[in-house]
Amino acid sequence: MNKIYIILLLILITSCGNQTELKNQIDQIQTQNDSLKSELKKYENKYVFDQVKIKHYPIKGSQVKKGTKYYGEFIFVPVVREDIVMFGTERDESKQGYEINNPITLKTKKGDFGAYRFEIDIVNDTTDLLFKPIIKNKLSLQHLNAGFSGSMFIDKLIVD
After folding, report:
1. Domain limits of the chain?
2. How far apart are CA 68 and CA 36, in angstroms?
3. CB neighbour list of residue 126: distance below 8 Å, 6 or more residues apart
4. 53-158 sits in which CATH class?
5. Separation CA 126–CA 128 (nearest Å)
6. In sequence order, what DSSP letters do the residues of 106-147 get, joined into one string?
7. What is the pTM of this model?
8. In 3-state terms, what secondary structure has residue 24?
9. What is the helix (H) or strand (E) element at residue 73, kind and residue range?
10. How far apart are CA 73 and CA 54, in angstroms?
11. Structure confidence by residue, pLDDT tens digits, 1-17
């Protein structure tokens, strides 16, 4: 009978050791979890983009023909409602750097998802399209998106 008590006592002692080890592991995992949660909390309301998409294309069946009106969209994603795009067809040679002569302010409308619509009259054989995104969102300006603010993107239309 004593042997049974000794065996039971040994089982109890070894199982208590396992519980202590398991408790330590649980505490360690909980600490790691809390640390990860605090790191993720920093990014809750932030825009995080691994890419920025920039594209210009014609809309409404537009063709590049002299004497016609051309309709297009300039897509700039990430899109934030406060951001605008300055648009024009001529560079301002009187100013240093890349500035647009008599720029038009393009804004997105709800549901456009970064599409800035514009229209121009085709009067020459070639027409430059100058786009200059202006980032106004404070959060975007604190991150990599700020590098796109004020950058000039140029496309060229050539009459068919």
Report:
1. 1-44, 53-158
2. 58
3. 156, 157, 158, 159
4. mainly beta
5. 7
6. E---TT-TTEEEEEEE--SSEEEEEEEEE---HHHHTSGGGG
7. 0.60
8. helix
9. strand 69-77
10. 11
11. 666 766 766 665 666 55
